[in-house]
Design a protein that fits this description.
- With 163 residues, the protein is mostly beta strands.
- It has a single domain (21-162), classed as Galactose-binding domain-like (Jelly Rolls), CATH 2.60.120.
- The chain is 9% helix and 51% strand.
- The protein has one helix at 2-15, and strands spanning 34-37, 42-48, 51-58, 66-73, 80-89, 93-101, 108-118, 123-130, 140-145, 151-162.
- Strands 1-4-9-6-7 form a 5-stranded antiparallel sheet, with no helix packed on it.
- Strand 6 and strand 7 form a beta hairpin.
- The longest helix has 14 residues, at 2-15.
- The chain is globular.
Length: 163
């Protein structure tokens, strides 16, 4: 009987365990994002239900010339994080995914993937990293760089959690 009571308590604790807190702004809100177009690069960004759809419509061959950024993030020096999202594209495309500071000199702070493959089949992507060289509170940003090629990328289920 004692074993059954202990098991019931354990099951209750597991059932009510909280999901890790998502440190990102809502993905499906246009105001959560900023589209940046540099040196002739052009793109679009829109919300479609629970997804954000971003595209590059004119490219220069440099990925950061078209980028979607989510700013105002508060990462802590030395903390380990997990970034996850599902993505699909109209064809096979490559994007850059990074975390960096949102002020002059724009350096990366632990995540910098340059060739993330996105295909027609939705796929979950996961990146684990430790925040390094974080300068200022709430001056961090997630960057999705699209400017290497003409593309349209749809992101859903975007989360950033403490590991």
């Amino acid at each position: 009987m004692k074993c059954l009571a202990s098991l019931a308590i354990f099951v209750s604790i597991v059932a009510f365990a909280e999901e890790p807190k998502n440190l990102l702004k809502p993905v499906n809100k246009t105001e959560s994002w900023r589209l940046e177009e540099h040196e002739g690069g052009k793109g679009t960004l829109k919300v479609d239900g629970n997804a954000v759809v971003m595209s590059s419509t004119k490219v220069t061959g440099t990925d950061w010339h078209v980028q979607a950024v989510m700013t105002g993030l508060d990462l802590k020096e030395g903390q380990e994080y997990v970034l996850k999202f599902k993505a699909k594209a109209e064809g096979t495309n490559y994007i850059g995914v990074s975390m960096g500071i949102d002020e002059e000199d724009w350096h990366q702070i632990g995540l910098g993937e340059q060739m993330v493959v996105i295909t027609k089949t939705p796929k979950e992507h996961e990146f684990r990293f430790r925040a390094e060289s974080v300068n200022t509170k709430q001056k961090n940003r997630l960057t999705i760089a699209l400017g290497s090629e003409i593309c349209q990328i749809t992101l859903t289920d975007l989360t950033l959690t403490v590991k």
